Structure formats: C-alpha cells, structure tokens
C-alpha cells in the first residue's frame, strides 16, 4: 500500500508461519511449552475423593501428584466457557499445562475456534514457541466431526495469535510456531483440512488488514492494487479487470459515479474473475462488496454522538470479505464453479463537484434515483455493481455491505442481517455459516415498505423513513437485480468491527468460501 496523506506507511511484517501437526500420542510423552486441554463442565466433575473421573485429566493429575485437581478446586475452575487456568511445571515434559473451559457442551465449530483463540492468548502470555492441544473428551466425535473440530481449533489459533501492529512504531511479532493437535486422528484427510483452515485464516487476516487500514492509506486506488495483486499471485485461476471512471461512464454507471464525484481520489471499479484451470463450469456466482474506503456522509455529513465517522474506514468491510474470499479461493482452487468478485470502490466526500441532496442520478439499468440523503451512498454504488454482476451471466449473487445502522439496532454488534427472496439460497448460505461459525439472521423483505421509497419526480428515493431502515435498503438493492438471478443481501454493519478491541474481524470471508465450495461440489 502506497503512503499518502500524513506520510503513513504500514510496516511490512512477516508473521512466523505456524506449523500444525495431527498426532496420536500419549499426553504424558509430549514435550513443549504448553499442553492445553479443552474441557467441558462435565469433564471437570470429580468423585467423592475430589479426583477427576475423566481419563485424560486423571492421567495428567496423576503425573502432577494431584496438583491439577487441587488447583482447579482452589481457583473454582469448573470448565465454564471463556475461563481457563494454566500451571507452570518446571520439572515436567511440558513446561505448562492449561485447562481451557468449553462450557456445558462443545459441539459447534465456534466453540472449538474459541478454544484455539484461548490457547493463542495463553501462548502470548507465556511467550511460548510450541503448543499441544487435546480435548478431554473426543471419543464421541465422528470422523467427520474430528476433521471439522481440528480445522476450527487451527483457525482459532492462527486468528487468535495474529495482531495487526503494522501501524505501530514498534511492531510486535508472536513467537508461536508449532502446534500439535492430539487425539483427533491423523492422515491425509486431516492434513488437507488443516491446510484449508490455514488458507481461510490467511484470507481472514488479509480482510482484517484491509479494514484496519486508514483511509489515508487505503484509497480506492490502493484497494484496486490489492485486488490486482491477488489476481497476480493466483494467475492460474484469477484475472483482474479494473475499470476507470471514464470506463464506468461508458457503462452509464451514474449512481456509482455520483457518489464518487466529490473526492480527489478517483473511483476504481474492481472485477476479479475466478475460473478453474480445467473442467466444465456448472455454476456461475458473483460476490459483490460495498467498497467505500471512507464515508463522510457527503452533504448529509455524519455528526453527533453515535455517527461513528471516526471508524468510517470500515465502510469497505463488504469489499474486504469479497477480496478475502477471492484470496482463499485462489489458494484452494475449487472445480466446476466460476466466481466474479465485484467492488465499486470510491470515497463519499464533500466538495463543489459533489452530489447534493435533491439531485437525480441515473443507474446503469436506466432507473432514476432522487438522492434525499447523501449518507445513504453505499446502496447507490451497489446499484451499478449489481447491474454489472447480472450482466456477467451469473446464476446467484451475494452482496455484502456495511449498509445500515438500523441493522445494528435490530441485531446487535455480532450478527449480520440476511435478506433474500430465495429460500434455496438462504438454505445454502446458512449451511455454510454453520461450518464457519459466523452468525446470520434472516430478515423480512416486506414489499409494502417500498411505499416509503417512492419519489414524486424520479423512479425512487435512496432512503425511506427511520423505521425498517435495513429492510427498505434491501428493497432498494432488489430494484437492480435481474429477476432470473438468485440474490442475497448481507448487511454486516455490526459484525465487521470489534468495538471493544477497536479492530476489524474479517467477518463473512469464511462463510463465503464455504458457500462457494458447496456450489462447487
């Protein structure tokens, strides 16, 4: 990324690659910095003599002379989710033994991803190089569940250890470089699953870094350069076409160009295409991401408490999900599916050349829009992006956007809203989310609400009243999608950003990759 205003340049940090290995060994034989055991509340139950009943905990406690049972009782550690305890053992093969709480039960990928994250946190504290992870109870897991569990643990560890310090004067590097996953099997299928987790986690980190980057560094041109770089890295399956403002004008993208008009940084329309190097194409998909690298609100400028103008660099979170998915799929190379990755990237700024409230703009499908709020700009860029996606001859489109504050009010900070008229497409994406562990909730597309979007002088206005704002935004987008194409809109305004840690989450990437793979198979 080239530096611009403020002479800011992100440090080029080469994070050490974590080597994952699946092993079937006795926990007593493992040697390293931390042996971490994932435990449920049931695993922590003890007999009348205050001894563990779980076989693995019983063995470890025996090796430690009863210290594990004793300390867990003293610290009132019962295996609750989010709780952990770590013992330092200078005379043992493992320097430390940690118990990581999984809660009452652990059967979903999200639980095991949190286990990986907790192990990563413990390894940071201890400055550990090598870690082993085992579940106290894994005997009831099917072979398929063991594969997905190992993958979730690996993903959680990689994402948990990662810290974006590119913009700090003294960047930090984690030390963890080796993780053994014990007791979940071995063999090529498991190794393949761990490699998949590594690829997707790498893509999520890429997505996080895009969203974390400030608008003075990540301009529309810089975002386009990042997209082109992905295509160059995986040129056997990915190609890039970056359209200039002039080319967009030829395609009559008046809605998108209206938003971009005020900025000194010109717009860049990004189109990556994934095609497998061999074999027939069964399905054509499009992933469309909102790409506002900064949103001032325009003449309806963001003001007052809760306007979040200070984090409007995150308004390209949808594009980060789309480009992150492109990176992962470039590495995984699924057969039988063609995927178009589309981002209408620009800034929403204020100047004498900018779009005004009351202006009427014309989208590339000929529909006219009366702009009654310049801060409802994301949907204007998406309008032309969706028309462009339909023109690629795709069967299904998923668009992702940090579109409305209304969706955060409705679903809170960790759940994305899903809008689609297609039950089949909803089923596909929700099945993918069960694997990824990301949270989505289907919202209604209430057609009667379209009344509030009607204009007296144009085909529509770009925003309705405050009530049902996320729904009317989705209904607006629907006007730019061909009826023959299955379409879904995902409003990820909440989960794209972790407000407590003040960092991006990479939300959406894992689910998109899973969805594409389901269409591939």
TrEMBL record:
GO cellular component: cytoplasm
Catalytic activity annotation: Release of N-terminal proline from a peptide; Release of an N-terminal amino acid, Xaa-|-Yaa-, in which Xaa is preferably Leu, but may be other amino acids including Pro although not Arg or Lys, and Yaa may be Pro. Amino acid amides and methyl esters are also readily hydrolyzed, but rates on arylamides are exceedingly low
Entry-linked Pfam families: Peptidase_M17, Peptidase_M17_N
GO biological process per UniProt: proteolysis
Keywords in alphabetical order: Aminopeptidase, Hydrolase, Metal-binding, Protease
UniProt superkingdom: Eukaryota
GO MF term list: manganese ion binding; metalloaminopeptidase activity
Span of domain Cytosol aminopeptidase: 373-380
Family affiliation: Belongs to the peptidase M17 family.
Subunit description: Homohexamer (dimer of homotrimers).
Name of the protein in question: Cytosol aminopeptidase domain-containing protein
Lineage: Eukaryota, Viridiplantae, Streptophyta, Embryophyta, Tracheophyta
């Amino acid at each position: 990324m080239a530096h611009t205003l403020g002479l800011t340049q992100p440090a080029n940090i080469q994070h050490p690659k974590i080597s994952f290995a699946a092993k079937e060994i006795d926990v007593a034989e493992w040697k390293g910095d931390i042996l971490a055991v994932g435990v449920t509340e049931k695993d922590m139950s003890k007999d009348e003599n205050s001894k563990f009943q779980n076989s693995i905990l019983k063995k470890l406690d025996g090796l430690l002379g009863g210290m594990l049972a004793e300390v867990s009782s003293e610290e009132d550690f019962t295996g609750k989710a989010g709780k952990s305890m770590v013992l330092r053992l200078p005379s043992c093969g493992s320097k430390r033994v940690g118990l990581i709480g999984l809660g009452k039960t652990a059967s979903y990928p999200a639980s095991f991803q949190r286990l990986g994250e907790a192990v990563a946190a413990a390894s940071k504290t201890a400055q550990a190089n090598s870690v082993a992870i085992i579940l106290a109870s894994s005997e009831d897991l099917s072979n398929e569940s063991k594969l997905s569990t190992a993958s979730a643990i690996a993903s959680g560890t990689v994402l948990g250890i990662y810290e974006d310090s590119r913009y700090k004067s003294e960047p930090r590097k984690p030390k963890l470089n080796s993780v053994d996953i014990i007791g979940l099997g071995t063999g090529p299928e498991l190794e393949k699953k761990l490699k998949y987790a590594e690829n997707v986690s790498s893509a999520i980190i890429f997505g996080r870094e895009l969203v974390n980057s400030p608008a003075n560094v990540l301009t529309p041109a810089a975002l386009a350069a990042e997209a082109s770089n992905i295509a160059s890295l995986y040129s056997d399956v990915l190609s890039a076409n970056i359209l200039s403002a002039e080319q967009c004008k030829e395609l009559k993208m008046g809605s998108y160009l209206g938003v971009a008009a005020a900025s000194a940084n010109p717009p860049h329309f990004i189109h990556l295409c994934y095609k497998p190097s061999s074999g027939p194409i069964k399905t054509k998909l499009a992933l469309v991401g909102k790409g506002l690298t900064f949103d001032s609100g325009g003449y309806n400028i963001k003001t007052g408490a809760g306007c979040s103008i200070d984090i409007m660099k995150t308004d390209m979170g949808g594009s980060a999900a789309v480009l992150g998915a492109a990176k992962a799929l470039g590495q995984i190379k699924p057969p039988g599916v063609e995927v178009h990755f589309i981002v209408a990237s620009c800034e929403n700024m204020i100047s004498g050349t900018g779009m005004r409230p009351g202006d009427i703009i014309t989208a590339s499908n000929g529909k006219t829009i009366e702009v009654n709020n310049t801060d409802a700009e994301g949907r204007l860029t998406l309008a032309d992006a969706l028309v462009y996606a339909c023109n690629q001859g795709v069967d299904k489109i998923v668009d992702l956007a940090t579109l409305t504050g209304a969706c955060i009010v409705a679903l809170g900070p960790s759940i994305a809203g899903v809008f689609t008229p297609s039950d089949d497409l909803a089923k596909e994406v929700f099945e993918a989310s069960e694997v990824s562990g990301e949270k989505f909730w289907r919202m209604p597309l209430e057609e009667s609400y379209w009344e509030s979007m009607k204009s007296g002088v144009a085909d529509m206005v770009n925003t309705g009243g405050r009530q049902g704002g996320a729904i009317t935004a989705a209904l607006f987008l629907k006007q730019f999608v061909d009826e023959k194409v299955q379409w879904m809109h995902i409003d990820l305004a909440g989960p794209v950003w972790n407000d407590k840690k003040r960092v991006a989450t990479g939300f959406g990437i894992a689910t998109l990759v899973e969805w594409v793979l389901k269409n591939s198979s």
